[in-house]
Amino acid sequence: MKKFVNDPKQFVPEMLKGLALANPTTLTYVPEYNLIQRADAPNDNKVSIIQGSGSGHEPAHVMTVGPGMLDAACPGDVFAAPPMDYVYETTKRLASAKGVLLLVNNYTGDRMAFDMAQEMSQADGLTVRTLFIDDDVSVQDSTYTVGRRGVAGNFFVMKAVGAAAEAGADLDEVIRVGEKVNSVTRTMGIALTACTPPAKGSPLFELGEDEIEVGVGIHGEPGRRRAKWAPANDLVDELLNAVVPDLPFESGDSVALMINGLGGTPISELYLLFGVAHEKLRERGITVTRSYVGEYCTSLDMAGASLTLVKLDDEIDGLLDAPAEIAIRVF
Amino acid sequence: MKKFVNDPKQFVPEMLKGLALANPTTLTYVPEYNLIQRADAPNDNKVSIIQGSGSGHEPAHVMTVGPGMLDAACPGDVFAAPPMDYVYETTKRLASAKGVLLLVNNYTGDRMAFDMAQEMSQADGLTVRTLFIDDDVSVQDSTYTVGRRGVAGNFFVMKAVGAAAEAGADLDEVIRVGEKVNSVTRTMGIALTACTPPAKGSPLFELGEDEIEVGVGIHGEPGRRRAKWAPANDLVDELLNAVVPDLPFESGDSVALMINGLGGTPISELYLLFGVAHEKLRERGITVTRSYVGEYCTSLDMAGASLTLVKLDDEIDGLLDAPAEIAIRVF
Predict the structure, then answer these.
(1) What is the pLDDT of residues A295-320, one digit of tens each?
(2) pTM for the complete prediction?
(3) Predicted confidence band of residue B327 (pLDDT cuts 50, 70, 90)
């Protein structure tokens, strides 16, 4: 294994320490609970929004904390759900008079930690609700999931509930918005290589020299099929043929198109995929009016990409358009 | 080779097409000359700034076009200088009454193309000057370079001259600013893996399972030494021991610190490196007041990272603080 790491057990804390040092005035890192929060949270005039998950999916979720997005992120170790008591402590710290919304990508381990933390917080008298995200169309149940998995489409849910909360919406309204966006968001990904967790030191699964995994999960879970490598045009067809009919997205629709890198794929290839998908959607009568190209939800160093479509209406377009600011930035 | 690519010969045009489709109102793609430009350029009230280089370093430079940064980028094929006549045509299209500044990372092939294009443009009566960037401290001469190579530190030069040009500075002043920033910027990188050009289909050089290249070039050129993998703390020491004494950066200095990913390294590892470097600089009495973590100048899918320091004063701090907007964005 060749990674930039010291003790693999300290991989997540050392990453979080770097994140906090790079954002000294806007983020607070609480090492006791592996917690990254907005320095100015909680705010009793807005619903607090927290997402947690295993680490290894950065920028999700520790690097998507900021105005108009998350108030806090509560990560576990690499590909491990956060401990229930960490989620509970995070929820208590972020408690707001308007309530707390927990966002959870649909994995069984995460559901358990967040369900129990919600119960404990509610027993304390806090107003806490949970919203599950399950945008991955590739398989119905999976290695670590009952139902569909939550993957890169979670960005759009975060963005929408973040915008609604920032505008002062109450908890019911924030949840309505989040459920609406989740209901019109669909994703599927392809792995070109496996990923290597720092503590394991070797690839999590095996892919042959010319093999790819179509519909891969972001922890390396199997997808729909193991296939031979094919040109980008064919791979985009395969993704669109899974994603488009699932909602379905139809001729006349306006959509947001996201090409998300899984960690080891350069942005040049992501833009190539974006161009191909944009054209192929146009041929189907579907218009891309919002564009997202880059890394949003990764799987450590996996080479690969996912394609997400969101069906837009004026309300969702407005929420995605709202200002937001997170740790990941260029300037 | 497993990449998202169709015909390798069309890799760059297909990427540029995707980039333009993702930025339909702000960028214009001119396929005849592989040119990406601001849709609203040229502007006779500001110096036009153009950078070109081989492709494969994205976001540099085609994705750093926009207000406050480049007016156009003129890329060659992967790791190949742009053709002289493309640079010439780009320069003519971007001609402004205030002049044109060509930014060139110091590689012999790029110098030749840009020198000749500058001569041809000047023969046409255009006001055109060139600024060379050479921030890489690792080696004096290199496979494709006389003198030092230009690498990720070129971001700071682009940002500074972009800010000065946007504020209406004349060509002499823009060049003064660019030379000043280049003179206080130092970089060195480490490769954990080689990179694979789409047209070659196999790694450009060989690195053993536990080997790294210290001081690697962004085209895979050899650095200072081939070494055994070591923990992140030790690798940051090696980078700082090369970069800090070179200027030198000294106790009491304020610096911008950039940890730049080389294409295949996830952002989690980059933040880990950032945290380690931040602390080690503090121990040397050097204060990080500006933070940059992510991909700025890559080498296709190479796993690795570079560390850049810029010595700040009020003028440079102001230029780096100025608003700018480029194609790479989150929202």
Answers:
(1) 999 999 999 999 999 999 999 999 99
(2) 0.97
(3) confident
Tell me if A8-183 shares its fold with A185-321.
no
Residues in chain B within 8 Å Cβ distance of A237:
none
Query: What's the CA angle centered on A307, arms A306 and A313, to 5 degrees?
Result: 145
Which tokens is A82 given?
Answer: 């956060």
CA distances from A30 to A21, A89, B150 (A): 12, 11, 39
| Angstrom distance (rounded) from CA A255 to CA A185 | 10
Q: Which of A6, A295, A324 sits opposite B331 (nearest CB)?
A: A324
* Residue of chain B minimizing CA distance to A324: B331
Q: Which of B158, B169, B177, B171 lies closest to B324 in space, CA to CA?
A: B158
Q: Where are the domains of chain A?
A: 8-183, 185-321
The distance of Cα A138 from the centroid of its chain, to the nearest Å, equals 16
User: Residue A295 to residues A3, A149, B267: CA-CA distances in angstroms?
Assistant: 19, 18, 9
Q: Which stretch of DSSP H or E encloses residue B258?
A: strand B254-261
Task: Name, in order, each residue with C-beta under 8 angstroms of B176's C-beta and a sequence gap of 6 or more.
Answer: none
Given the residues A15, A20, A46, A57, the one annotated as active site = A57
Q: Determine whether B32 is exposed, middle or buried from the number of CB atoms within 10 Å of its CB (0-12, 13-18, 19+).
A: exposed
Active site residue B219: yes
CATH fold of the domain at A8-183: Rossmann fold (3.40.50)
Percent of chain B with pLDDT over 90: 95
Distance CA A78, CA A75 (A): 9
Furthest-apart CA atoms within chain B: distance in Å: 55
**What string of DSSP letters covers A158-194?**
HHHHHHHHHTT--HHHHHHHHHHHHHTEEEEEEESS-
Is the Cβ–Cβ distance between B132 and B111 less than 8 Å? yes
Token pair recorded at residue A189: 């990904």
Distance (Å, rounded) from C-alpha A321 to C-alpha B301?
Answer: 32
What are B239's two structure tokens? 């980078």
CATH assignment of B185-321? 3.30.1180.20
- Quick count: other Cβ atoms within 10 Å of Cβ A323? 9
Q: How far apart are CA A35 and CA A17, in angstroms?
A: 10
- pLDDT value of position A234: 98
- What CA–CA distance (Å, rounded) separates B146 from B141? 5
Alpha-carbon gap, residue B271 to B254, rounded angstroms: 20
pLDDT band at B1 (very low <50, low <70, confident <90, very high): confident
For B135, half-sphere exposure in the C-beta direction (CA atoms, 13 angstrom radius) is: 34
User: For residue B105, which of B65, B66, B156 has the smallest C-alpha distance?
Assistant: B156
Q: What is the DSSP string of A78-110?
A: ETSPPPHHHHHHHHHHT--TT-EEEEEES-HHH
Residues of A in contact with B55 (CB under 8 A): 268
**pLDDT level of residue A141 (50, 70, 90 thresholds):** confident
Query: Half-sphere exposure of A131 toward its Cβ, with a 13 Å CA cutoff?
Result: 26
Structure-block tokens of residue B258 = 């950039």
> DSSP per residue over A199-240, as a string?
TT-S-SS---TTEEEET--TTS---SEEEE---HHHHHHHHH
Chain B residues inside the 8 Å CB shell of A199: none
Give the count of alpha carbons within 13 A of B331, CB side only.
25
